[in-house]
Amino acid sequence: MADNQPSESELSAELDALLARTRPERVVVVTGAGISAESGIPTFRGPEGYWTVGSREYHPEDMATEAAFSTMPREVWRWYLYRKGVCNAAAPNVAHEALARLEGALGERFTLVTQNVDGLHLRGGCSLARTIQVHGNTDFMRAVEGDDTPIPIPAGVPAIGRDEPLSDEAWELLVTADGRRTRPHILWFDECYNEKLYRSESALAAAEGCELLVVVGTSGAAAIPYHVAAVALKNDAAIIDINPGSNPFSAHAVDRAKSGKGLWLRGSGSRWVPELVDKLTG
Ligand code: APR
């Protein structure tokens, strides 16, 4: 090809060769917004992410904070119920479904670490046990004080349209069974990863023991994929990055291709994840 990019058939052959060479037993898959892009979930930082409160426009980085929640909890809840509605209206795509097949084949040798809060991996068939949702899930809430075990948002809480108010009836439902106020079960920008709520240590432990790390649709902006990759690569795992655009993981994959343990599958999740899963399970 004119720009020296490998063709799809060349990439397929390289994938065969990498898997034949490395024969991975334990696989960690890290996913980001790119895997849900083809399900129609708008990107976090795109125009859809903006939110107007009164005469003021907020950026997602302002709304998704404990600081915002502590000063305007109803507005932050309203924004999350809107986002939950968008996620719930989307359907898992072939890449989500393929990862569920991989879990079915590998069982405990498979770990999925997702930054996505859209719940599409679970709806696509991956189990909660094998899916580490390091940034939370828009379908869950937890108490602000006391026991903070995540619980599903009650079915009676309606999805909210962009310009719709949050009704008092819905607000009253956003409490625990014993009446404590709740917040969305989301890791906010001014908060830290932790094991109890987000299983971040478990993600690193899985990376420690894997022979293959697959990264799909993430730019590497958040800390956890970066740390998971660092741990896996320190232990000499192979790395496959699936992404149409270059990113820190494609750079690692290209670098490790020299020792036969890296491959950048330049393309979409729906193009490459099913093929990778077929080859890993075939
Ligand atoms: N298939 C695979 N990858 C894709 C596709 C696709 N169809 N479309 C886009 N991508 C890639 C882009 O090239 C980009 O590298 O998905 C990536 C999306 O990057 P981000 O929008 O930064 O998403 P993500 O990496 O998940 O963001 C990390 O930052 O704001 C926080 O909490 C938020 O979880 C989010 C985190």
Task: Report on the architecture of this protein.
Keywords: Hydrolase, NAD, Transferase. Its EC number is 2.3.1.286. It is an enzyme of class 2 (transferase). It comes from Enhygromyxa salina. Pfam families: SIR2. The chain is α/β, with parallel strands linked by helices. The protein has a single domain, classed as TPP-binding domain (Rossmann fold, 3-Layer(aba) Sandwich), CATH 3.40.50.1220. Helices cover 42% and strands 17% of the residues. It contains 13 helices and eleven strands. The strands form three sheets. Strands 5-4-1-9-10-11 form a six-stranded parallel sheet, with helices on both faces. The radius of gyration is 20 Å and the shape is elongated. The model has no long low-confidence stretch (mean pLDDT 94). Bound molecules: adenosine-5-diphosphoribose (APR). The site of adenosine-5-diphosphoribose has 22 residues, from helix 2.
Strand content: 15-25%
What Rg, in angstroms, do the CA atoms define?
A: 20 Å
CATH class value = Alpha Beta
Number of continuous helical runs = 13
Low-confidence stretches: none
CATH topology heading: Rossmann fold
CATH superfamily: TPP-binding domain
Tell me about the largest β-sheet: 6 strands, parallel
**Helix percent band:** 40-55%
CATH architecture: 3-Layer(aba) Sandwich
| Topology pattern, helix = H, strand = E | HEHEEHHHHEHEEEHEHHEHEHEH
> Based on CA inertia axes, which overall geometry fits?
elongated
Distance between the termini: 30 Å
Bound molecules: adenosine-5-diphosphoribose
Q: Mean pLDDT, rounded to whole units? A: 94
Structural class: alpha/beta
